[in-house]
Fold this sequence. Notes:
alpha/beta; five-stranded antiparallel β-sheet; 20% strand
Amino acid sequence: MSELLEGVHHYSTESSWVKPDNPLLLERLEWFKDQKLGLMMHWGPYSQIGLVESWALSDEDGTWSRDDVDWTTDMAGFKREYFDLNRTFNPIRFQPEVWAELAAENGFKYLTFTTKHHDGFCMWDTHTTDYRITGPDTPFHLHQYADICRELFNAFRTKGLAISAYFSKADWHTPYYWTPGMERGDFMWRGPSYDPEKQPWLWEQFVQFTHRQLEELLTRYGRIDLLWLDAGWVRGGERKQDIRLGELVDRMRQHQPWLLTADRTVGGPYENIVTPEQTVPEQPMDIPWESCITMGTSFSFKYEDQYKSVRELVHLLIETVAKGGNLALNVGPQPDGRLPAPAIDRIKGLGQWLGLHGEAIYGTRIHDLHASGRFFFTRKAEHVYALALYQEAERLESKILIPLASKIQRVDLVSGSESLQSHQTDEGIEVSLPADIQLEEQAPIALVFRLWSQ
Length: 454
């Protein structure tokens, strides 16, 4: 299976998912399924140029990652300029507590933050390289919030959110992975510049380098609930890039026994959570999964980006949850340390909707009929929730048919009128809507019904 198409990863299927035999991990997977909404953030020096994170460095991926630029005539020069972006990255308007409060107040339950993307720049105070946010060449290193991962993780934990640490297994800055003068020459791809089987001593240095970085994050930065590992091409087998992940994770679980891992697109015992990217699966998946989807068009900050509307985001969340997944909604912070104003607006709009209707989202599971027509369904305890999605230009009718054959005792509007007039028909449950809803000029984002079983 091809792992990457124009920067978008495919995802593992249910058949490749391996159920852990550790009771604590099984308990934590059920916890994860309850969360439903995470805030994902891709942030680093690359935010300054408003370009897709890291990928323009890979010549093999240049056809899609270098749109609208004129660097292709001097890629060696561009790569030097890219790797020097740390020298100007100075996000002095960064306020971790403000980010955490915004997320907590608007229904997000966990943070997935890029500790390191493929370009190798570390957003924590690593001892393994000077290519880091606290490095002497990075002007932000003297700021009170210089250790960005520490500040963010602490701020979000204080607000009750869990921590998911994104980490790229590839590293295009370290000479242990992209080594100058090796057999690939100047034309680079996303893998190492050498054959690990032919240069085992060099590959072992990369393995040890990677283990040291992960050990720092998992022993010096407090509780980590999920280790979110990107760069699925870094794996053993035919890829010949075995970093002995199991050895590292098993050792780290001695410190953090609750640690879940998402070794994405790899399958097997360390892909506890499957992670579709920029897509929602066509059918429900009854395994732990989350779709990582951008609020705009780009994972990293993009100038004049186009953001999805609140209506689109709510509909996206409803579909994802009805199919059994979580939504990791990605926002790319600005280079100055603030969140883009359109992103803040959408987060607050999503939070307002969840404040009224979150009962039908959080802690739910897949219903036997996950979708029909404009409806999506979830279930929790004795209740079934029917969520009818509307477009902005639509108008409500006085009655609505919920296409569900189950016999029900009562129908309520979540955060609205209770015991609505309803009766069972051959096609489903016909419900009369309250007069105040019928008179609304604009269709609601979604009507959310609570169905009480007989």
